[in-house]
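During the no-cost extension, the postdoctoral fellow (Dr. R.K.) reprocessed legacy sequence entries with the updated structure-token encoder. One reprocessed record is reproduced below for audit purposes.
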Amino acid sequence: MQAPLDFVPIWTAIIGFGVFMYVLLDGFDLGVGILFRALPDDAARDLAMNSVAPIWDFNETWLVLGGVALLAAFPLAFAIIVPALYFPVLAMLLALIFRGVAFEFRAKADTSRRVWDAAFHYGSLVATLAQGLVLGAFVQGFAVEGRRFAGGIFDWLTPFSLLTAVGLIVGYALLGATWLVLKTTGELQAWARIQARRLTLAVLVVMGAISLWTPFLQERIAERWFSWPNLLFLSPVPLVTLGLAAWLWSALARGREFAPFAAAIGLFMMGYLGLAISLWPNIVPHAISLWEAAAAPRAQAFLLVGTLFLLPIILGYTVWSYWVFRGKVRADIGYH
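Re-encoded structure tokens follow.
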């Protein structure tokens, strides 16, 4: 009898790509929100808001794609991860909704604009904090007995998850600052450039702390990174990360506009790659592998047909939207 096709690598790539696209695209506009109240004045806040106005809402399409794909392709993982992370996921979704409402109301507000400024800022901050807690708890792993989550409702709240939350906040803020460098001019761009340099140092410190802590969470992770010859093969990951940080710092100092944003994206890519190396092949760290959590091959094949049809459409309209709204943001073009 012929063995069924293995769709797990395909679905892993789809989910991994979808999550990364969300972190990247929603990351910089959440970063703009994190920086929002610190911006110099109302004119700068208007420009910052206008820079993300045309594209902020459909960035979250990738979050929906990742969540639905996880439910469809790896239902066992979904059934364990969601109960384990119920509260931070709920906080994230409520904050994203609250942030979206603030985005719309601020454009129409007059006397209450400062209220909606604060709502946009704190909605972005809470959503990022919740995502960081989810990430930290995921890397730490979950208490699993058989095929169910066996831990407590606050297992996600640990020193390590708090550190990852801080790391994601400064990381998104860096993306937001470099985005403003790319999209604005004058005083706001100069302000964003200064903040980006400060945030680059903060990101390096937090990334270093997380990288040193992660191998001590699980013996398997330490063995993967520090055993021979893995130590040799994986050494380019931290080296490339340091190189990207140096490029980012240099690009900011030399007045570049696109290069800082590209370098910040590269830092996120290397962090994402490092986590993938640490956790592979588990989808429920450190208990259940991708193949153990996967749906039946026929179900995966059926769902793949629609996904492979929709994925190019989502990617296409994302690229097209960014192309249409390329260039510098102007004060006379607002969000209405």
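Residues 8-322 form a domain with the Formate dehydrogenase/DMSO reductase fold fold (CATH 1.20.1630). The mean pLDDT is 88. The remaining legacy entries will be reprocessed before the final report is submitted.
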